[in-house]
């Protein structure tokens, strides 16, 4: 790995007897887009606030560009921050909101105007410069908040669940725009999210957190295809778990749990020679595919989730209580040495 630009080293944070962060180590490259992903209460927002200087770590250090900033106040860290709630001034226009952070920077009115217009152009909102936040949609307000953050030419950008207050269609569009803008500006970015789809589609690398600790760091493909634990496998996408004796005779030495993604299981009509007989218990329409829950006949307590294309669903005439055969591809099984399913 290249020399890190932003380093989080041995960060601990306690609030009384409660441990919010436990020995966090993350090295982030220049221009990299990192997502902190995990369930509520895992410590991801606390970590972001420590990087911003809004919280002080109990132990550990933060360095940016080789400079220790652990004790610097937020005003001395040169970062931009975008919040879930937009945090725009309702009595200021879009232009004035973006210009606000430039006041007192010893810039001329012309320089401020140039910077603000450039930032508004980057988020494609030049036409809304004279509108107030109440006159803008949620997506437009968040883009103004983003323009306000980048107009300061920050060393790094912090995004605290910036899309969670938006509806699904706007969220999908804006995540593409944010990623394109980040790549265009080449700015090192850390984003907090609990949304796995956001992390998978936006991040260069994902930091998966649980109970104040880092569980895995890797590219979206790595954490999805090679999860380090049952927790990561279960948190990133849908997955089926089997104990060491269930699953078409697949057994791994040591008896560790096995898992397979729903899209890797194949279905055939009843009577397929190599498969396992199963009964459809539930079928859910997901647009381009159906998510089908099956009960494996040899092991009645074992339910399996399978993603089936609309074409195959209609071809097999799948419906509740339909008898089918499923095939579990051994080459797609994920194993977790020294792990137990109770940790899921």
What does this structure look like?
- The protein is of the alpha+beta class and 344 residues long.
- It is built from nine helices and 18 strands.
- The strands form four sheets. It has a six-stranded mixed β-sheet, with helices on both faces.
- α3 (109-122) packs across α4 and α4 (138-150) packs parallel to α5 (168-185).
- Residues 246-253 have low confidence and may be disordered.
Structural class: alpha+beta
Contiguous uncertain segments of 5+ residues = 246-253
Number of discrete helical segments: 9
Strand order of the largest sheet: 6-7-8-3-9-10
Give the termini separation.
Answer: 30 Å
The backbone outline, from C-alpha atoms, is globular
Share of residues in helices: 10-25%
Order of helices and strands: EEEHEEEHHHEHEHEEHHEEEEEEHEE
Please tally the β strands and state the result. Answer: 18
Largest sheet: 6 strands, mixed
Q: What radius of gyration results from the CA coordinates?
A: 24 Å
Percentage beta strand? 25-35%
Mean pLDDT: 90
Write the layout of secondary structure elements.
Layout: E1 6-15, E2 18-28, E3 33-37, H1 44-52, E4 59-64, E5 67-68, E6 79-83, H2 94-99, H3 109-122, H4 138-150, E7 156-160, H5 168-185, E8 188-193, H6 196-202, E9 205-210, E10 213-218, H7 220-225, H8 230-235, E11 240-242, E12 258-260, E13 266-269, E14 276-285, E15 289-296, E16 303-309, H9 310-315, E17 323-327, E18 334-335
Parallel strand pairs: 3-8, 3-9, 6-7, 7-8
Antiparallel strand pairs: 1-2, 1-4, 4-5, 9-10, 11-12, 12-18, 13-17, 14-15, 14-17, 15-16
């Amino acid at each position: 790995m290249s020399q890190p630009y932003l380093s989080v080293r041995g960060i601990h944070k306690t609030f009384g007897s409660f441990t919010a962060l436990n020995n966090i180590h993350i090295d982030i490259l220049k221009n990299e887009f990192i997502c902190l992903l995990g369930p509520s209460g895992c410590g991801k927002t606390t970590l972001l606030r420590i990087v911003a200087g809004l919280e002080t770590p109990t132990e550990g250090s933060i360095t940016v560009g080789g400079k220790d900033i652990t004790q610097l106040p937020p005003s001395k860290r040169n970062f931009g921050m975008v919040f879930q709630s937009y945090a725009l001034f309702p009595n200021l226009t879009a232009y004035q909101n973006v210009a606000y952070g430039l006041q007192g920077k010893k810039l001329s009115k012309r320089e401020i105007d140039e910077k603000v217009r450039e930032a508004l152009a980057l988020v494609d909102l030049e036409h809304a410069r004279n509108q107030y936040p109440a006159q803008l949609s949620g997506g437009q307000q968040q883009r103004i908040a983003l323009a306000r953050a980048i107009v300061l030419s920050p060393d790094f950008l912090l995004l605290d669940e910036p899309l969670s207050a938006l509806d699904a269609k706007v969220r999908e569009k804006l995540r593409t725009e944010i990623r394109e803008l980040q790549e265009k500006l080449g700015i090192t970015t850390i984003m907090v999210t609990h949304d796995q789809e956001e992390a998978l589609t936006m991040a260069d690398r994902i930091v998966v957190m649980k109970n104040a600790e880092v569980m895995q760091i890797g590219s979206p493909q790595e954490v999805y295809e090679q999860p380090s634990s049952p927790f990561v496998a279960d948190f990133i996408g849908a997955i089926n778990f089997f104990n060491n004796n269930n699953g078409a005779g697949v057994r791994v030495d040591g008896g560790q749990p096995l898992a397979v993604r729903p899209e890797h299981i194949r279905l055939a009509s009843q009577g397929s020679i190599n498969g396992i007989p199963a009964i459809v218990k539930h079928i859910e329409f997901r647009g381009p595919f159906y998510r089908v829950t099956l009960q494996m006949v040899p092991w009645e307590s074992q339910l399996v989730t399978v993603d089936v294309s609309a074409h195959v669903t209609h071809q097999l005439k799948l419906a509740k209580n339909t008898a089918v055969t499923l095939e579990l591809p051994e080459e797609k099984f994920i194993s977790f040495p020294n792990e137990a399913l109770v940790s899921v």
